[in-house]
Amino acid sequence: MVERIASINAPADRDEWAAQDAAELYRLDAWSDDFFVVNDAGRVAVRPRAGDALEIEIMDVVDEARRQGLGSPLLIRFQDVLRARVQRINAAFNDAIADVGYTNIYRGVYPIKVNQLHEVVEEVLDSGRPFRMGLECGSKAELIAALPHLAEDDMPLICNGVKDRSMLSLILAAQRLGKNVIPVMEKFAEFDELMRLAEDKDQPTQFGVRIRLRTSGSGKWADSGGYRSKFGVSLPELMEIVEQLQATGREAEFVLLHFHLGSQISDVQILRQATKEIAQIYAELVSRGIPVRFVDVGGGLGVDYSADNDAGAIHYSLQEYTNAVVSTLAEVCDQRNVPHPVLVSESGRAITAHHSVLVVETLGAYQKNNIAKDYEAPADVHDAVKRLVDMHQQLRAHSAAHDVSELLEAFHTLDTVHEEAATLFRLGFLPLDQDALIERLYWSNCSLILQHLRAADPDPLPAEVHELEEKLVDQYLCDFSVFQSVIDHWAIGQAFPIMPLERLDERPDRRAVLVDLTCDSDGKISEYVSSNDDKSFLQLHKLSPGKPYFLGFFLMGAYQDIMGDAHNLFGRVTELHVYADDTEDDNFWIEKVLPGIKVQDMLAQVQYFPNDLERRMNAIIKSKIDAGEIRPKQGMKILEQYLACFQHETYYDTRESDEVKSQ
What we know:
By secondary structure, this protein is an alpha/beta fold. It contains 22 helices and 20 strands.
């Protein structure tokens, strides 16, 4: 068995590490919003209910899933967290309204594009019922899904996105039913089409207008606002809409103003600036006789995934966000002597992100091959091998007498010998077994040099230290697909908090990069949330033979559930819907299990169907039987084995490995 690289950071005394150190390393205080903690047992626990100290250890949920025969990866939805987020956002807006003396109400709407899964939408609506919460849709399919959920007539449904004639016609039909459906005009042409349809049906309508503000967004979604925005009506077009309405006496149909600065607003001052701009437009319209009743400030209430000072960092609290919106809107309205409008926001990410945790099992750790500590080279080895063996022995005997310059010189010499050996092998002057031995010696010496450099703690840190750390990082193979479950990391470089779910009372002494099951070089996590200056690796524990090691990917509830890609035909993972209950064992119960997609269902999505595949496979096997290459019984067993795989899930099945180990 290959010797593992020595730890480069672990202290001699493990008692120097405590669970709180793990919380600081993985930045829980920055991103957890008090929903997740590391307890004294060294496990991650969720506190799903607002103002309640009840805790659920995530590994208890994983263990229960395993007892039910479920494999990983698992997506665990803590439904109570959804409810808590809805309550917190509404409470923050209502507190701001009370503090400012705002004379109207807040009506939140949930944009289902963030996570359209039915149970998520139903949980949000149920928890939002006391606040008269509504929905937002952005496509025809989302409109069809949302309409039947308008239980009360005044429940708002904001319709964004591009709308064709049939979608606008369905919106008018919903309005005829007395439902509070408000299509938002993204382009002037939509307004013309809606007016013609309403006239054809001899039906009054109501609509909103998205304004293309001068104020631009910030961070990754800066272009969602400002002149480069994909959507929105310009101010000249707005005035043309107003003139047409006044010419036809239909001013009352214009009921809502809307703007959107992007999925993540990083700077609350930009939000304040945009709110002031839309408030001035609202005040001007009201003064001109357009009785707008709603001002929709869009989405973008930030979720702090990493708390780092990058372009996407969030530098404000929930209460600061709501105070900025409410106070700015009130200030302009009071100055212009117009009534305060109903305030609407579409905070989808902030509602859903925290409730989902992706749990993946680590399948193995790939580390650089080392040489045995007591290795002695045979007399007939190549001179390059002898030089590296001598270096290895000197480094193992290294003492404080060796200064940093000597260690750096050793590293440079090591690199030179390694390159010379590569040239010799390419030219045919170095046997394969000795080239492999040089590889082992190279990595062993790199590990020792880095260990000694770390112990020397030079200031400033030489560039060679970073180079060695990058060379020596482990690869932890994990049972998941980046493209299916963490698509925003691959697509836009979004960092997600990731950490072990247990053993957090032990110091994690390995430097690791997480790689997935896909046969794609991009199938890895390249940036991590941690207190380390270097975010290119994650500190993890050494794997223990025969013991599973689970990692939790946090803040997965927004977009990742919906936007997954079918790379390598890895499909949806198994889901658990969990509710807190202090009368149950381990403080929870599993309300629903949604099994991961089966191979045959994943194949059907790309037009491979079992009957056709069975026919083709059967023909291949029959031809081999007829040719006498295999016996009939053997052929039928192969066919049965092939067909049985149709009912398997698409991911690596660690349960099979567990069964083999137990035999």
